[in-house]
## 1
Amino acid sequence: MTRPLYDRHRAVLPDWLALYYRQPIEITHGEGRHVWDADGNKYLDFFGGILTTMTAHALPEVTKAVAEQAGRIIHSSTLYLNRQMVELAERIAQLSGIPDARVFFTTSGTEANDTALLLATAYRGSSQILAMRNSYHGRSFSAVGITGNHAWSPTGLSPLQTLYVHGGVRARGPYAHLSDSQFIEACVADLEDLLGHTRNVAALIAEPIQGVGGFTSPPDGLYAAFREVLDRHGILWITDEVQTGWGRTGDHFWGWQAHGRSGPPDLLTFAKGIGNGMSIGGVVARAEVMNCLDSNSISTFGGSPVTMAAGLANLSYVLEHDLQGNARRVGGLLIERLRAICAQLPVVREVRGRGLMAGIELVHPGTDRANPEAAAAVLEAAREGGLLIGKGGGHDTSVLRIAPPLTLTVAEAEEGAAILERALRTV
């Protein structure tokens, strides 16, 4: 049934618009942690539309809020007062940990990061940005310009001057052999050295756990140590929480809190899971940073009544049902199960992650070379077994990305791990 649709897709959409699977599937509906395709096949969803269906498919509380709001008014723009937008902004500002916080809503994580870069460069009067190697921050012109992953950066042109810092990848690179404390020390020394060759840097932008980069992360405390250096130079810290926010890591509500010793970030960007599939992104910043722009601005679609209603209902569900705690408990069990499975598989280099955010890096057995062919094969085999996962990584897309909705049960975690074990054994 999907072949005619695939042919139509290829005839009218860009060649660079990626599709999963040799025979792409059309997902028609979902419920809880499961989705169905146009051929009637049922799948356990361990990717959630790229970490976006964060809570559950067809969550009644969210669908009810969307339907009721759509029945009243769908759109008004930010030129008018919007009660739902104010209420969601109040809740996010309080949860962010940023003092005297202001919130600006966008329609995506890309746009959120774009806005954060605008604010930081305007506030500091500088177009120089520090970013992490292996990073990904979106597909806009400015976001591509700071992305440190060549597979997702189609042009070297940029309105910004970007300098890349060590530290986002713990198990590869020149400092991989060091202990955690030595790793942090070396990365801080690299940052200090880099700043000795620059002028007036605006900000460092960093994902606490790199998403597209393959769920890699530094030791806890790295960005706290960076913050001490940044503060001496007046440089802002932007934490990109598009994939790590809302309790997904289990241990913390925000990824930055694993690095919170030196205080909260100056700016925080979010998107994906807060809308549970609705298009919401945004920036939280200290008031003096958020208010630094000296020209008018609006958002036509950011903070729309319908998406704000969805965000309010979804955030309430996350907090009232302690989904952060569920991510910690069930995610911990899932990661340990995956580590036990992969311990005897020579194609697996590392199982890493936190909460319901796990990565399995595949290599050619007996080597340290990335194995994107194996990752593609496991992706196909998992789908055939009834499981949807993702892939990524800064080394030729060789990492399996596992990020189920935060309501995942222990039984579903075991079922998904068993399917994944069979898929991994095919390669």
## 2
Amino acid sequence: MNSRAAATSARVTLYSRPGCHLCDDAREVVVRVCAELGESFDEVDIESDPDLEDRFGEEVPVTFVDGRQHDFWRVDEARLRKALGA
């Protein structure tokens, strides 16, 4: 599942902003890993929420796994796989 709404039951949440090349790179890793492992993810545009913009600012992309912050700026593929139990 890939949506730009608030996180739901997906194990991975990617907080990003439009026009961010690091976000594009992170999305590619998240999409690939989640597809291979049969996991879903949500993507949230921090510009849609002032609180998220204040919280994450220039640290996007930020990934959360199971509700806990996992990485920011870059997504380490091996680390993400490990966090998801692969």
## 3
Amino acid sequence: MSAAQRHDEQLAGLIAGRASVVAEAEVTGSPRALKTPGPSGRAERWAAGAVARSLTSGGQVTHARLPVVIIGGEEWQHAGAGQLLRVTGKLRPPDPGKVEAAILTASSPPVRLAAAQDWQRAPAALAKRFASATWWLADDARGLLPGMVTGDTGGLDEELETAMKTVGLTHLTAVSGANCSLILGALLLAARSLRLARVPAAAVALTGLGLFVLMVGPDASVLRASLMGAIALASLAGGRAGRGLSFLCLAVIGLLLVEPELGVSFGFLLSVLATLGIIVLGRCVMGWFPASVPRWAAAAVAVPLSAQVLCGPVIVMLQPQFSTYSLLANVLAAPLVAPVTILGTAAVALLPLAPWLATVLIGVAGFFAGGVAAVARFTAGLPGAAPPWPEGVFGLLTMLHFSVVTLFAVWMAAHPARTVKLVFAAHAGVVRILDRLPKVRLRRRPQRSWET
């Protein structure tokens, strides 16, 4: 047996045995507040992504790079990305479909062994300052705006979070590929408006996207979202689905080689499927609309529809219910997401330079964030917003069939004249088939004497 195999078996044994360990771990993302209390009844809990460098259990030290999620009390809300901490706690296996290898429930406050570097501290401090600067907004906007801009979902109201989950707007509660695409697209347009060539403009846009990722926190999920968002934007802007599909395949292969655990992650699968839907179906669906429909309006329908068509069968496997108004909610919220993301991100950058201008941008971005919250609450309150859906393989196949029917219905709505022609052609075909059938002469059955 190789040393690597023995090493992996030792780590697996610690996780499966729910061992008590002393871990030295480097925090990789910003802590987030958990809404539900833990088994011990502790009301306020925080979770932070980290990489465990060493685990000590039973006097034996195991060196590793083990991705974990640390769950602890309120003292963990001040942990920052890049910090090296020592913590005592108990390991346990993660939920199915999660990327992390284990969950470490902390039984002690974190002990700082090394501080984060300046390039890691500054963006995190700026994101916290932005969240504090939204104190004067309405409740829904104050809770949703930091999540949509910096990924801080700590202030999100539980009822609003449930409403957004019901109507398929969960991807807007935190930074996703859509946010990264908007930032990248806005930077590209700004660079091109300054008459920069394509290569310098792309370099400026990618640099800005990198700074945005640092501000949000270079979590693995944020890095994947930025990569998928960039691929989807490049495919839609370039008009070449084949090139976008090639980039997507290379990105998936590279990510799986670097992080094989992604192969069992539902979040990674949904991200890939959403990007695949936008690349393969997005431009096709946009082409269905007549020239009189503005391109932005066609994209507002095509992008969420193409993503949901491929993600829907997987989502019902995780959550067996049907989001009846998901497409409607995404179409209504789509025009509001860009102002929130772009103006909010600009406000973050202007906070240390021009606080008064940043406050104005926060107010405008908060107004649009409140609109997103209003859309979620309104559509979630409509009748039949979340009816149950069959579980298992039958539910998956049913949703797949329903997705195909939905695409066909959108095509018919976008081509009314051709739809009428198809209906008449189908009617004529049925008539011809019936005419060619042999005539069947019905003979009357003679009555028997006892039936009279």
## 4
Amino acid sequence: MLKFDFAVQTRYGQKIDSILIAGRDQADAERKLMQMYRLCTVMRCVTKNSDEKLWQATSIEDILTLIARDS
């Protein structure tokens, strides 16, 4: 599933720089966005690679470091 990073302006004029929404495509992600922020204006939409984080913690040392931080 793709992730989309939206920058929007709400109907009351507040600007939100980053809202990350997963979707099958951009239209699906925009539909979900409009359910949360009705009548907002999309200022920017950037597709994020969802596979980036899957390869970050590949070594045992990285995994142990992550576990030690949570303790």
